């Protein structure tokens, strides 16, 4: 209901796509470094938490985990009191790869097996990337998984022309999927 605001009944309800990060004030550049994006998010943490939605609390930045002597760093760790789960963010300034998804799967598994308390729900992993690759997502993640999400971020609001192009692109994808489904059913 609109009167209650954002209703969170499942992990999917927690994740936005895209996240609009205009409040960071990043210059319009062709490419950013992950460290620049992370620093800007931490510098504007309150605004970032507002962009994330209800129930988020900041836990850690560059959370180090060590597995058999190898060190890994989770970019940002949050806790959501509504879902009673840890939320792990991995920031990617380029196009998403299957390695990025595998890395997040490892982080989520680690948190579920070592950090999660008995009364908490499974950890949620969100890869925040500049460019999604839907084919890589489809074939890397198990079909019915509910723990890892990939969201695009945009550093500034798109122009009217960019919005029109995005709507046309999404409509084309929708039409192609509908044709494929019809073809399977015939």
- Biggest sheet strand line-up: 1-6-5-4-3-2
As residue ranges, the low-confidence spans are none
What order do the SSEs take from the amino end to the carboxyl end, as H and E?
HEHHEEEHEHEH
CATH topology of the largest domain: Trna Endonuclease, Chain: A, domain 1
Gap between N and C termini: 39 Å
Return Rg in Å.
Answer: 18 Å
Average pLDDT number: 82
Whole-number tally of structural domains: 2
Strand content: 25-35%
Count of DSSP helices? 6
* CATH class value of the largest domain: Alpha Beta
Question: For the report, how would you describe the main beta sheet?
Answer: 6 strands, mixed
Strand segment tally: 6
Describe what you observe in this structure:
- The longest helix is centred in the last third of the chain and has 26 residues, at 160-185.
- With 186 residues, this protein is of the alpha/beta class.
- The N and C termini lie far apart (39 Å).
- Strand 2 and strand 3 (70-80) form a beta hairpin.
- The protein has 2 domains: 2-155, 3-Layer(aba) Sandwich (Trna Endonuclease, Chain: A, domain 1); 158-186.
- Helix 2 packs across helix 3.
- The chain is globular, with a radius of gyration of 18 Å.
- The chain is built from 6 helices and 6 strands.
- The chain has helices spanning 11-14, 34-43, 45-52, 98-114, 134-140, 160-185, and strands spanning 19-20, 56-67, 70-80, 85-95, 124-131, 148-154.
- Strands 1-6-5-4-3-2 form a 6-stranded mixed beta sheet.
- The model has no long low-confidence stretch (mean pLDDT 82).
